[in-house]
Structures are given as structure tokens and as C-alpha cells.
Specification:
alpha+beta; six-stranded antiparallel beta sheet; 41% helix; elongated
């Protein structure tokens, strides 16, 4: 994994530069496995992210905004009890392992100082954040409780004795005595790149696969032992003076090493900014799925039912459209009634609607010839009258499928803070029940606002992130002369340019936003309609977010994440 012991070493050095001796001013747990601790240091506030996520575990200073949940978790309350106002005395790494210890001092109610330790273990699905009393070596609490049934060697429960993660029988590459001669022997014995990388991982602590391959490539360039020693020292020195880069080799990953420019996708100014850049989309998507799990399940269940219903209705409509066959058989039976004998199961009669070709007609032996003809006429009338009903039901069902697919797209494109608005809409539309407590508070809830961007020429652009925002933005907030944009024929955001005659550059930038915040985000070319707001109208009884328009023009753009981020930054500058 990229966040290996080497990267952890580099991150500890970076954190020391910024937050050492800082004071904790705020603690929150916006997501189940992640804690944000804000420290005031060097006249700045630094939000420190401690993540025990099974896939994205890390420690960093983050700039990604988050919403503080209204009800704090038990772990949050425990951290606030002990760490509120605490001062960070030291940040250390456990040898070269993926464990970072934050040593703090706090004061109790009597004003007496006492020591605390916050330990973050970055170990995949075993990752954890643990609050420890170092004097008694007792666990005060952990973000994930691990009982004896899960791990017999090491319990992570309040009140249990704290045991460090089991030590590996590997050398710490940063300790001089432990590394003498080992890498020299490995390079001599293993000329193959992959094999040498594997042996470095076996021999040394904290080497992830990607960084082991980097070391192997560098070491294989040496022509002598002296040069080999120099390369080894240079590689280790890079950890203390990192180069934060996103790299594409066999896969895309982040690193603190100076890779060749041909492999570098992007270089950042700090390791924390690097992790924000690398994890923003992945972690945000995962957080949305965590927090919006109920919404996702509700949408999936309704879509499954509606698609099944639409299939049955389509079959029924196809059957209904064959109604004329029953009328024809009834009329032919009536015409040749004197040739039909009671008790027959079928008869062949000339079809005067098709050049007198013989037509096979099934009969009920228990019915008279006249009753058999009437049976065909009744079936014809029943099917004919059902066509209108089935067609209407099919239209309504397809309409609901389109609506739910739109909601599904909004959830996929949403940030965690956008989910409450989507939940409110589903409650108002009857897909989710509104709890009794919330019914009383419903009118007092503040509505989420569309996201604001600024074009290159400082023209304001607003983007709705859910159907309630889309309706509010297009039908109530926007001026009649403003320009409205939407990705053509796919679910997506309503985009409003607050100008009646925007420049072509602004139009293209707004179209890019409409394409990016739509179901077609991953497409190479996306058609985007634009028209003045006064030409938009909402049909009576239409669902949230649905509008019709005329007189539109169409632009073709390629969704560009870099441009979206640029326009978002322009909003911050304003």
C-alpha cells in the first residue's frame, strides 16, 4: 500500500513542522471511521484527519470541508472529555511501522496536568484510532472496539491493557546498525527487479510494494558498492525531504519519492495536499455510500419493482394491441354461424379480411355457436378498453423510473453534505417515512444551497445538487433573463449563469459544469442545452426537478475536472 512505513515516516516529519505544540480546539467525527481534530498552532487552525477506514486509512492535515454531525458519537465524547484544550508535545512513529503516536498533555478539573497518547494504526482493515493513558498503559477508548472473540492476542476495549501491534522480524532501514550489508547482499543476489523488491519487503520494515520497486530500480543502477551505499542513503534522505507526487506505473498511486517525470501525473506542495488530491473523489464517494446507504437501498428497491412492472405492462400492451384478431374471429363466426355446429373444438372458415384465406378459430364445445362469437367480441372489448389504461400506467411507470434514475445519479455525484436535501425530497415524495420527531421540526429545517462557482470573467454560476435545489434555483431564484443549462436527455444538475448575455467562454465553462454534474460525467463529448430562464416552465403535477423548455441551443463539451476545480477556486477568491 502507498501509505507504508516510509510514507508514514515522511508524514510524521511534515506534521511536526506544522502542528507540534499546537492546542486542540475542536474535535468531531463526521464519518464512522474518521476523526477530525483541529489544532491551533503557529497562528493557524489545522484540521488533522485521523482515518481508520479499511481502504483509505491515513493521517494528514486536510482542507476538504466536512459537516459536523448534530449528535456526537461516544468516541467523540470521550475524546472531547480528555483532549479538549490539550497540547501536542510530540509526534512519533513506532520504528518504521505504520503507527503514529501523538503524545499530549491535558489538565483535569483541578488544573493538574496529565499525559495522554493518541495512537493511529494504519493497517488496512485492522486500522484503528486509540486513546491511551500512558502512565497506566490502559486504553481509554478506541474508534473500533476489538474484543477477545476477534483477536485473542490484543483486545482494544476501554479499560484493557494496551499492547502495541506485534513486532515484525525486520530491520528498520533508518537505524544504521540494522542495515549494514543487508541491501548490498540483496542487490548482489537478486538482479531481477521484482524479486529484489520482494526481498526488500521481507528484509526491511515499512516497504510497500510500489516503494520497494522504486528502491530496486535505483539500486540496480549502481556500478560499485560505494555507489550503491550512496544511492541507498539518497533514497532514505528523500523520505525526510519528500517529493509529493501522484504516479502512474502499473497503477496510479501516491508517493513521497522523486519519480521520473514520465511517470508523474501531478506534483503537490505537501504530502497532506497530495492525499487530499488523491483521496478526495474516492473517499467522498465511499462516504456518500456509507451515509447514504439507506437512500441507495430505497432507490434500488423501487427501481427493481418499477422495471419489473414496466416489463409486465409492456407485455400486456402488446397483447392488447392484438385485440383486432378477436374482433375478426367474432365477425367471421357471426357471418358463417349456420356452418358452426355445437360441440366442435375448432373450425376453419374463410377470412374475408385476408383474401378468403382459411382461418383457424378455437371454439368452446360447451357453448353455442352464437355464444362463441359473443365470447370473442367480449374479449375484444376488454382488450380494447385496457389499451388506454395500460398505456397510461406504462407512461407513469417509465416516468418514475426516469425520476429514480435521476436521484440515483445525484447520489453518485453527491458530496456527504448534499445527502440531507436528497433525503428530504424522498420523504416529501413518499419513498421514505418521515419520523414523528422530524415532522414537528420539518418547517424549521434550513434548506441546502446550490454550489456557487465563478467563471473566468467573474460571472456567477450556480449549480443545483438535488431536485429541490434545481426547482428553487430555476423557478424561484434565477432572473428571467438568466441563462439555464442542462446536459441533454440525461439526469443532471440545473446550472444558472447570472447574466443575460454571457461570453462564449463563460457559456462553455457553465456547460462544462452541467456536463460534469450529470450522468454523462465520464463521456468524451456531452451535448448541453442552454436557453433563457423565461423559456423554462414546469408542468402541473410534475415531479421535483422536471421542467420543459423550447428554443434552446446546444453546446458540445468534454467534462473537465480540472476546470471545475479552477472555477471552484475562483469562488473561494470571491
Amino acid at each position: 500500500m502507498p501509505f507504508d512505513g516510509l510514507f508514514t515516516h515522511a508524514m510524521v516529519s511534515e506534521l511536526k513542522q506544522h502542528i507540534l505544540h499546537g492546542r486542540i480546539t475542536k474535535i468531531s467525527q463526521p464519518y464512522p471511521n474518521e476523526v477530525i481534530i483541529t489544532l491551533r498552532a503557529q497562528r493557524h487552525n489545522y484540521p488533522l484527519l485521523l482515518s481508520a477506514h479499511p481502504n483509505y486509512a491515513r493521517v494528514q492535515i486536510t482542507k476538504i470541508p466536512y459537516d459536523n454531525p448534530p449528535v456526537p458519537t461516544n468516541f467523540t465524547m470521550k475524546l472531547r472529555k480528555y483532549l479538549d484544550g490539550a497540547v501536542l508535545l510530540n509526534i512519533s512513529q513506532l520504528e518504521n511501522d505504520r503507527v503514529i503516536n501523538f503524545d499530549l498533555t491535558a489538565r483535569n478539573e483541578l488544573g493538574d496536568a496529565f499525559a495522554l497518547r493518541l495512537s493511529v494504526e494504519i493497517m488496512g482493515r485492522h486500522s484503528n484510532v486509540i486513546l491511551i493513558d500512558p502512565q497506566q498503559n490502559k486504553i481509554l477508548d478506541a474508534i473500533k472496539h476489538i474484543g477477545p472473540s476477534q483477536n485473542r492476542y490484543r483486545m482494544l476495549l476501554p479499560g484493557a491493557e494496551y499492547l502495541a501491534p506485534p513486532q515484525q522480524d525486520k530491520s528498520n532501514p533508518f537505524i544504521e546498525a540494522s542495515k549494514n550489508g543487508q541491501y548490498l547482499t540483496l542487490v548482489a543476489n537478486y538482479p531481477n527487479r521484482d524479486v529484489l523488491a520482494k526481498q526488500l519487503q521481507i528484509t526491511y520494515q515499512g516497504f510497500g510494494r510500489e516503494h520497494a520497486l522504486y528502491f530496486a530500480d535505483q539500486l540496480h543502477q549502481a556500478q560499485s558498492n560505494a555507489e550503491l551505499q550512496q544511492i541507498w542513503q539518497n533514497c532514505l534522505q528523500q523520505v525526510n525531504c519528500p517529493t509529493p507526487v501522484i504516479v502512474k506505473d502499473s497503477k496510479i498511486f501516491f508517493s513521497c519519492f522523486a519519480y521520473s517525470p514520465k511517470y508523474v501525473i501531478k506534483q503537490m506542495s505537501s504530502l497532506s495536499e497530495l492525499l487530499d488530491e488523491f483521496y478526495q473523489q474516492k473517499a467522498t464517494h465511499d462516504r456518500v455510500h456509507q451515509l447514504g446507504g439507506q437512500l441507495i437501498d430505497v432507490i434500488k428497491n423501487h427501481l427493481h419493482k418499477d422495471r419489473k412492472k414496466a416489463k409486465k405492462l409492456a407485455q400486456a400492451l402488446q397483447t392488447s394491441q392484438q385485440a383486432d384478431q378477436y374482433r375478426i374471429k367474432g365477425e367471421i363466426l357471426t357471418t358463417y354461424l349456420n356452418q358452426v355446429k355445437r360441440g366442435e373444438q375448432q373450425i376453419e372458415l374463410p377470412n374475408y379480411y385476408d383474401q378468403l384465406k382459411p382461418l383457424q378459430i378455437q371454439l368452446a364445445p360447451s357453448l353455442s355457436p352464437a355464444k362463441n362469437a359473443q365470447k370473442y367480441f367480449k374479449k375484444y372489448q376488454k382488450l380494447k378498453s385496457s389499451v388506454a389504461y395500460v398505456s397510461k400506467q406504462l407512461d407513469l411507470t417509465n416516468e418514475e423510473i426516469d425520476y429514480l434514475e435521476g436521484i440515483q445519479t445525484q447520489i453518485e455525484l453527491a458530496k456527504p453534505q448534499d445527502l440531507p436535501g436528497i433525503k428530504t425530497e424522498l420523504q416529501e415524495q413518499g419513498y421514505l417515512k418521515l419520523p414523528k420527531k422530524e415532522k414537528k421540526q420539518k418547517n424549521h429545517q434550513s434548506k441546502s444551497q446550490p454550489e456557487k462557482f465563478y467563471a473566468s470573467d467573474q460571472t456567477q454560476i450556480l449549480v443545483g445538487k438535488n431536485n429541490l435545489q434545481n426547482d428553487q434555483l430555476t423557478l424561484k431564484t434565477a432572473a428571467k433573463s438568466d441563462i439555464w443549462l442542462h446536459a441533454k436527455n440525461v439526469p443532471g444538475s440545473h446550472v444558472i449563469i447570472h447574466a443575460s448575455q454571457p461570453s462564449q467562454t463563460t457559456l462553455l465553462e457553465a456547460a462544462n459544469l452541467a456536463a460534469y454534474f450529470s450522468k454523462s460525467r465520464g463521456s468524451a463529448t456531452v451535448p448541453v442545452d442552454y436557453v433563457m430562464v423565461k423559456k423554462i416552465r414546469k408542468p402541473n403535477g410534475a415531479r421535483p426537478g422536471f421542467v420543459i423548455y423550447e428554443g434552446q441551443k446546444t453546446l458540445f463539451v468534454t467534462p473537465d475536472k480540472g476546470l471545475v476545480e479552477k472555477l471552484r477556486e475562483l469562488n473561494k477568491d470571491n
